[in-house]
Please model this.
Amino acid sequence: MIIKNIVRKWPIDQDLLWLDALKPLWLELQEKNLYPLRFAIVATTENDCILELTVVEINPEEKWFSRLNINSLLYSTPRTHTPLEKFGIVQIIPTGINCSFGGYAGDATPVTNLLSSCCDFVLTHPNAVNASEINELSKNTLYIEGKTLDDFMLGEIGLERHISPNRIGTIIDPTGNHLLDQVIHVLNAGMAVGGFNCDTYTIPSIDFGVKIEWTSTGCASGTITNPEVLLETAEALLNQRIDALGVVSVIHGVTKEMCEKHIAGNIPNPSGAVEAIITHLLSKIFRVPTAHAPLPYYQDVKYQSVENPRSSAEFISTPHYFCVLKGLHNAPLIVDIKDARAETITINDIGAVVVPASALGGIPVLAAQLHNIPVIAVKENRTILNVNQTIMQLPNLIEVESYLEAAGLITAMRNGMNPFSLKRPIFPAKEVKFYSPQLKTNL
Model:
């Protein structure tokens, strides 16, 4: 198994849904035994879109091959109905693209909690609320890994809330053995103070080999040199009746210059995207709640500025892991959509997807087009990308200036109000004419 990053140019077909237009690409990758673990449209030319992908190259004979299938990308069908009793939203904060909200440790938590106050529940991923030893997610925010969120949006899985806490198992990268006591302190504190069930950890004998990379568009990315070690360790841990997986690993390749630029707001967090690659792989293979924290790569390189409040959470801890334990503690169960029950949260319960207005090229937005779910694009959350409505031409998209405006819009939608009735100018009713070939007349 090899994890690598590639760039593909693909023709734009405005006559098709985006997911349908990309199906030939997924089939092409499948023929080459490449699974698209993570991807996004990051730019366009006159006739083509540019995709950056993290792919898993795996032979059919390998152990994990059958679990890396592209069926959800090929055979997704629109949802059967709009929200009935529950009105939930999906909050997306892509990592590795320097979001104004969410580009640092947990600084999208306030806006996520604002949105949660306007609906029955919010689905979001760890990047939005993880903040070192701080995790202030609201009680109706469901903490799910980004790949799980993608597959949920594609209609492949459902989610179930539960009362009993997850038993959390922790995988520790052996490169960080010199920090083992500090990680164990976090586990112990989680049990003694948080009431978490997190008393089990394991350390493989081989380094994961987690390394950062940068894409041509300036996005953060990365790879894992020894993914089989990570997977075999996770499988062994799950066999001990573990419900959720936390990972702490050393991330290689981050320099002092990168840290200074990131803290100053000039480049994305160098480590965010490779953390997502780790958890995407685990959650896709094992279908359990998963999250990651970086062991400190920065002792001698990170610029410890006090001038940027958004970065401050990174400096108050060494393991950065308590936020993961709190998120995984009550993370929802993941069920195959074929096993969904009346209480299962499915794509039918989603009333809107909230996303930065310049980052519309990920699976949640493309899937929202398929399901005709409104996409609320927040212009205030700027990124280094420019994949906006001018490029994507999504008929289900509503642009707003801020998260405050998004909250008002969600409140209106939840209460059955037409959001366009709340804007000015308001346009009059229009006549629509139809022609009947059978009657040979206008109707």
